[in-house]
């Protein structure tokens, strides 16, 4: 930009340059990344990486929000801090939680991060056992034939699981012909195991006979849980397989 004065009888003409710097507009920061959580006693410590872009203004604070996947009504706890990590308190022991993080600068609050890994807070010394269940069987079974589903429950520890109930749904169009040590309640066959040590596995089998009329793909779901010991990763306590009937 140039300012020019042509002059008059008293003053000579002149010109000068004026520099003007235009700053980019400030926006809210991006989402934090790499969010991880470690559970404690009714609390969790959440770590994260600062957003790649701060929107043109330094991040002044971060906010962590908890989501309770066991009972949504017990979630929603928040905590703020100026940097990673941030501790979140007031959680319910035995419930499964994930966490998201937002960043704030002078322009506002940016989008939430992707959720953290799931963690389960527990009291000091409380036993825990990480159960996982799988179910395997054939992809198809013809009219009048029989097929067997194999249910495997594994305990990754660190403690012994007790009072383990494992249930498998019985779809329509098949009849249960064999379920060793299993009991039937309505459309569910279940097995009861008093305990399962860390790193141990128990296997159950169930044999079906296909009726002569159904022709569809049946879904067979199975789930397991320990009634007295917390499970830090409950998502793998459920499994599903399908079999084409007819």
From TrEMBL:
Residues 28-123 form the Fibronectin type-III domain. SUPFAM superfamilies: Fibronectin type III (SSF49265). The keyword Hydrolase applies. InterPro entries: FN3_dom, FN3_sf, Ig-like_fold, OmcB-like_DUF11, Striated_Muscle_Regulatory. Pfam families: DUF11, fn3. Keywords: Carbohydrate metabolism, Glycosidase, Hydrolase, Polysaccharide degradation, Repeat. This is Fibronectin type III domain-containing protein. The lineage of its organism: Bacteria, Bacillati, Actinomycetota, Actinomycetes, Streptosporangiales.
């Amino acid at each position: 930009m140039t300012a020019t004065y042509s002059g008059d009888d008293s003053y000579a003409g002149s010109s000068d340059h004026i520099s003007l710097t235009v700053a980019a507009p400030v926006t809210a920061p991006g989402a934090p990344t790499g969010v991880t959580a470690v559970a404690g006693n009714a609390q969790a410590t959440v770590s994260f990486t600062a957003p790649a872009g701060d929107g043109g203004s330094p991040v002044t604070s971060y906010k962590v929000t908890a989501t309770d996947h066991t009972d949504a009504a017990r979630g929603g706890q928040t905590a703020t801090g100026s940097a990673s990590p941030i501790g979140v308190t007031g959680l319910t022991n035995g419930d499964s939680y994930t966490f998201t993080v937002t960043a704030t600068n002078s322009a506002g609050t940016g989008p939430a991060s992707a959720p953290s890994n799931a963690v389960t807070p527990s009291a000091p010394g409380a036993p825990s056992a990480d159960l996982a269940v799988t179910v395997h069987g054939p992809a198809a079974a013809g009219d009048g034939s029989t097929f067997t589903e194999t249910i495997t429950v594994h305990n990754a520890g660190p403690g012994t699981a007790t009072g383990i109930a494992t249930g498998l749904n019985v779809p329509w169009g098949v009849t249960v012909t064999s379920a060793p040590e299993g009991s039937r309640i309505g459309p569910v066959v279940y097995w009861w195991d008093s305990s399962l040590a860390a790193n141990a596995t128990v296997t159950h089998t169930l044999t079906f006979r296909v009726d002569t009329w159904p022709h569809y793909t049946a879904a067979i779901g199975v789930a397991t849980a320990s009634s007295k010991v917390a499970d830090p990763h409950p998502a793998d306590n459920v499994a599903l397989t399908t079999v084409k009937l007819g």
